[in-house]
Specification:
It is a single chain. The protein contains eleven helices and seven strands. The longest helix has 20 residues. A seven-stranded mixed β-sheet has the order 1-3-2-4-5-6-7, sandwiched between helices. It has a single domain, classed as Rossmann fold, CATH 3.40.50. Strand 6, helix 9 and strand 7 form a beta-alpha-beta unit. The mean pLDDT is 97. By secondary structure, the protein is α/β, with parallel strands linked by helices. One of its GO terms (molecular function) is hydrolase activity. Pfam families: Abhydrolase_1. Keywords: Hydrolase. This is Alpha/beta hydrolase.
């Protein structure tokens, strides 16, 4: 079996959690940039990329993913880390902060939102899970590509994102959808965050609009907000230089706090 995570560089640790239905290659620009100064770890979540999922798994809860993050950090001997995630990955980051805040030195919440699922949303996620198992990933990937990355994004980015989506196993994606439908509300948790936090969102993101990011920024004490122009749901790939500059600023804040 191929290794299910990337671990590159040395120094303070930065763990990056991918979204749905992607894999750790979505962080390729950030791994290349930040492994020059940090130890960057990016796992494939269970059921995505090269990571297996147990046969017959109906639902993978955010708590399951969070415990996988903690177990990987333990296995790699990483006690403390800055933790970032995009979309579903951001919700996993929030669950990690709920479960083990003492391990986390900084947070990156990218193109995500903290509210629990609505009844309509739960029904939609369950229906999509059934559809993916029935039809596979391609039809879904074709439909949502222009929302994941903007239509004006570079073709190489669009190809990469579409390839990640169509390469995802339907069983893993469906289990995550069902688990995500059951997620808790993290809005109160955000008001308790006491580590440097970056909230970032693409200006043209329709899944998690700028207003959602602004509300998270307002809720998290001392957080910073970056709205990335000319980007939709994946600004780290669509505008990596802008995303990386914001992330570098957060890592500088984390380092300054550690020295204070």
């Amino acid at each position: 079996m191929s290794r299910t995570y990337t671990d590159e560089g040395t120094g303070d640790a930065l763990l990056l959690v991918h979204g749905h239905p992607f894999d750790r290659s979505m962080w390729a620009p950030q791994i290349a940039e930040f492994s020059r100064t940090h130890r960057v770890v990016a796992p494939d979540l269970r059921g995505y990329g090269s990571a297996p999922i147990a046969a017959g798994t109906r639902a993978t809860l955010l708590g399951d993913f969070a415990e996988d993050v903690r177990a990987l950090a333990d296995a790699l001997g990483i006690e403390r880390f800055t933790l970032g995630g995009l979309s579903m990955g951001g919700q996993i980051v929030m669950e990690c902060y709920r479960l083990f805040p003492e391990r986390i030195d900084g947070l990156v919440l990218a193109d995500t939102f903290p509210a629990a699922e609505t009844p309509e949303g739960r029904a939609a996620r369950d229906a999509m899970a059934d559809r993916l198992l029935r039809e596979g990933m391609k039809g879904y990937a074709d439909e949502v590509l222009d929302k994941m990355v903007a239509p004006y994004a570079e073709e190489s980015v669009r190809v990469h994102v579409h390839r990640m989506m169509t390469s995802t196993r339907p069983e893993g994606a469906a289990a995550a959808l069902r688990g995500r439908a059951q997620r808790r509300d993290y809005q109160a948790l955000l008001t308790t965050v006491d580590v440097p936090t970056l909230v970032v969102v693409g200006r043209d993101d329709t899944y998690t609009p700028v207003a959602d990011a602004e509300a998270m920024h307002a809720a998290i004490p001392g957080s910073t907000l970056t709205v990335v122009e000319s980007a939709a749901h994946m600004p780290n790939l669509e505008q990596p230089a802008v995303f990386d500059a914001a992330l570098r600023g957060l890592l500088d804040r984390v380092a300054a706090r550690a020295k204070a």
